[in-house]
Amino acid sequence: MTYxxxxxxxxxxxLHYHLVMVVRQRRGxxxxxxxxxxxxxxxxxxxxYAISLQNWHSDIDYVYxxxxxxxxxxxxxxxxxxxxxxxxxxxxxFVHMKExxxxxxxxxxxxxxxxxxxxxxxxxxxYVATQRH
Length: 133
Description:
Layout: E1 6-7, E2 12-13, E3 15-23, H1 32-45, E4 51-58, E5 62-69, H2 75-93, E6 107-115, H3 121-129
Antiparallel strand pairs: 1-2, 3-5, 3-6, 4-5
């Protein structure tokens, strides 16, 4: 299996991750418009953490994200910053959603983060893209 390696001034690396975030109480509030906005927020915040979005897919109560990172990336800080900012912005921009949310909390406190390991990028991206099917 061949990996394309990334480089920076001090290292060579291949750090790919699969992130799954769930809406609190699985309230089923992510439609196409909300998904697009969540992705925009992700893409706006991610460069500050040396993260690059590779693939995005959502279902009504899940977001599946495949991304690359650098060795200096603090993943838990990024995820917490993203969940906080996106929750705040989504509740502000989609006011009608407050009725559907549990205690006005958008995301579940937990998330799943997995490194791509020995799976190929293509396999993971295909998985992320076909979750609804």
